[in-house]
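INTERNAL AUDIT FORM
Audit reference: QA-55
Scope: verify that the stored structure record matches its stored sequence.
Auditor: D.O.
Record contents follow.
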Amino acid sequence: MNEQAQVPLVKLGDTDLVLADPADDIRGRTVVDAAGEKVGKVDGLFLDHDEAKVRLLEVVDGGFLGLGKESRLVPVELVRSVTEDEVTIDRDEQTVIGAPGYDPELTDAPDYFDTLYQYYEIGPFWAPGAIYRRPPYRP
């Protein structure tokens, strides 16, 4: 396992930070897989506070009036395209459902993000030589 650098991630909605370009705010958009199957909705954006870069999307699915809602984090490296209404990711619905669940109490656990990135089989953003891949936002 890669040793995770202590990277402070913050949920955009829990801060007074704003995105430089309001058009980049994809919260509320439907998340679909490459086959067009609905995975959930973008509920939150997690930023690397030190570098002010979006690193993870919080994708929620299910529930009614907040009950039974399940949250999963999806690395921005998996975003393939963004339209006015949808965010397409490079994993299917079942893969996202099987990902480690997002629990605010666990995101500070030392191995949570290691486990998340290993699950999706991509290198973590804090690894040496990692290159930031900004999500492909709509022009």
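Auditor finding: record pair retrieved intact. The first strand starts at residue 9 and ends at 11.
Action required: none
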